[in-house]
Every structure is written in C-alpha cells, then in structure tokens.
Amino acid sequence: MFRVILLQTAAVAMASAVGGLMAGSPGGISAALGGGVCLFPNLFLALYLKFAAVRPGAGFLASFLLGEIFKLAFIVGLLFVIAQEYDDLHVPSLLIGLVLATQALFFWGFWKKN
C-alpha cells in the first residue's frame, strides 16, 4: 500500500509542476493541494491498516471499512476547507491534481504494461 503512496506523491509532483507551468503559481499550488487531498488521507489509512493488522482480536474487514469511511469524510472536509480558505484557487489545476493522485496506480498499470 505504501507503493501506491509513493506513486501518488510522484503524480502530485508532476501535476504541480505542470499546473505551475500552465497557470503560474496559483495553478501549481492548487494542483498540489488537489493531490494532497487524496494523498494524505490515503497515507493515514495505510498507517491505520498497518497498525490494525497487528492488533490481536481486531477484525481487519471492520477496520478497513471504518478507515475508508473516515478517509472519504477527510477528503470531503479537506476539499471544503481548501475551497473556503485558499483565495487564489485554480479549480482546473486542483481537479487535475486530484484525478492524477487518485488514478496514479491505474496510469502506472498502463505505463508498465508489456
């Protein structure tokens, strides 16, 4: 699961660089924020599941479902906070960063395919 986090980090860096080139500083920051909206909740979920797997007596499926629910709520909350607090938000860059971070593993599969 931590490989996915690394792939998402690379995708966010790429999206931020392209957003910065296309829309200036607000575009790069917006793309980084959009990718971070997906990246940080996934990192917290991976850590939570790593610790849940070694707990005796804990149901892994219940931990996974609970972690996913909190992850989705965290993503929605972060998007709301960013939309309210960041005045120079460039929405297309934010969405590109979010989509690239979300689909990093999917794109990696196409690139790695023989």
List keywords for this structure.
114 residues; 88% helix; 0% strand; single chain; mainly alpha
N-end to C-end Cα span? 23 Å
Kindly give the count of domains: 1
Please, how many helices?
Answer: 4
Shape: flat
- DSSP strand count: 0
In percent terms, what proportion of residues is strand?
A: under 5%
Unreliable spans: none
Whole-number average pLDDT? Answer: 88
Structural class: mainly alpha
Plain-language structure description:
There is one protein chain. The chain is mostly helical and 114 residues long. The chain has one domain (2-112). 88% of the residues lie in helices and 0% in strands. The chain is built from 4 helices and no strands. Helix 1 (2-54) packs across helix 2 (60-85) and helix 1 (2-54) packs across helix 3 (91-102). The model has no long low-confidence stretch (mean pLDDT 88).
What is this structure, in a nutshell?
Helices cover 88% and strands 0% of the residues. With 114 residues, the chain is mostly helical.
List the helices and strands and how they pair.
Blueprint: H1 2-54, H2 60-85, H3 91-102, H4 104-112
Helix pairs in contact: 1-2, 1-3
